[in-house]
Write a structure and sequence with these properties.
Blueprint (H helix, E strand, L loop, with lengths): L2 E2 L2 E6 L5 E6 L4 E5 L4 E4 L14 E6 L12 E9 L6 E14 L2 E12 L11 E6 L5 E6 L17 E6 L20 E4 L3 E7 L5 E6 L5 E5 L36 E3 L5 E6 L12 E5 L4 E8 L2 E9 L4 E6 L5 E5 L4 E6 L3
Antiparallel strand pairs: 1-24, 2-3, 3-4, 4-5, 6-7, 7-8, 8-9, 10-11, 11-12, 12-13, 14-15, 15-16, 16-17, 18-19, 19-20, 20-21, 22-23, 23-24
């Protein structure tokens, strides 16, 4: 279905054949997958491009799926430069689509509604994936550790955490540390490293996929108030070879449901719910970067296990389920393809 310049996220507007694509350097594209026609969406934000930073995720509200594309709410994430010109951080913005045709589409009234705190130096581990609770009431945002490690164990900031917000970006009532106020009131879980995918299973449970260091990629069942141990415990080691203590039963941290060494280098994840690949329903499908494969993981209660991987022949940055149950993947890189996978 064509090539794109460093595509990072792909997302269908619910109830349509319109696929929105973020390109890391800052462009927002839209493709009508029924016709193959392509347009550039105006009103995209200015992004702090460099390293792992740039344009991030795109997300829509399921509750608006019966409405015209024009006038729908759109959520975007990206890396933003700090006022000092030396620091950066992830942000989430909310706007409205003015979209009458694939070549006449723009985002209007885009306002930043959430900022990762604090902004820090460096250009890595933003995470900034967005998902909404199955009831449509809350927004969950992945906030990576920004390669700073120890802040992931400090709940006075939102680095290395998943935050749970109202749809306007304010902290949601009932969060596990809501009574502490400030950014701490946003936190749902912490002790994460670099979360690149989140999705919900049929029981309404949230799962995430995250990069380990040298080894130790993790699939986690995300629990309210839980601490996942980074950087105190990991099934990987630091890139310089320094060891990190493995998890133990009595370490006080939540253990991953599955982990990988050698790594699969996850780029994104969905939990499949369609009929086209019927036997896969309920499985996690992980877009692999260094593994250059779609990795399928069976979920059984709180446990998970890789059951297959399908080589695509390129680094996979994003994965999405199509309206007909097909599977769409976006390749990483300056000429990244977007591919539609269908059952034979």
């Amino acid at each position: 279905m064509g090539t794109f310049n460093k595509p990072w996220a792909i997302e269908f507007a619910p109830g349509t054949t319109m696929l929105f694509i973020t390109e890391k350097e800052g462009a927002l594209k839209v493709m009508d997958t029924a016709t193959g026609s392509l347009g550039t969406v105006g009103g995209a934000p200015d992004v702090a491009y460099g390293g792992q930073g740039g344009f991030g995720d795109v997300a829509f509200l399921e509750a608006e799926s019966g409405e015209p594309l024009d006038g729908r709410t759109i959520y975007l994430s990206w890396a933003e430069m700090g006022a000092d010109g030396e620091t950066r951080g992830a942000v989430v913005g909310r706007g409205t689509l003015a979209c009458t045709a694939v070549d006449a589409c723009a985002v209007e009234g885009l306002d930043v509604i959430w900022r990762q705190a604090p902004k820090v130096s460096g250009r890595g581990h933003y995470s900034h994936r967005i998902t909404f609770s199955p009831d449509g009431q809350y927004m969950f945002v992945a906030s990576g550790d920004r390669q700073k490690l120890e802040p992931a164990q400090d709940t006075g900031n939102t680095l290395g955490s998943i935050v749970r917000l109202n749809l306007d970006g304010t902290p949601a009532a009932g969060n596990p540390m809501a009574d502490q106020g400030g950014v701490t009131a946003e936190i749902w879980s912490y002790g994460h490293r670099n979360i690149l995918g989140m999705d919900w299973d049929a029981d309404g449970r949230l799962w995430d996929i995250e990069h380990g260091p040298a080894g130790g990629d993790e699939l986690n069942l995300v629990r309210e108030g839980a601490n996942y141990g980074w950087p105190t415990r990991s099934y990987g080691n630091h890139y310089n070879g320094d060891p990190i203590e493995d998890h133990s039963e009595d370490d006080g941290f939540v253990k991953p449901a599955a982990h990988w060494t050698p790594v699969i280098a996850p780029g994104d994840m969905i939990i499949y719910s369609g009929d086209m690949f019927g036997p896969w329903k309920g499985d996690a499908l992980i877009a692999g970067l260094s593994s250059e494969a779609l990795v399928r993981v069976s979920i059984d209660g709180d446990d998970a296990q890789e059951v297959d991987r399908y080589e695509i022949g390129g680094r996979l940055r994003s994965v999405e389920q199509g309206p007909d149950g097909s599977i769409w993947v976006a390749e990483d890189g300056p000429e990244g393809r977007i591919l539609k996978l269908t059952a034979k």
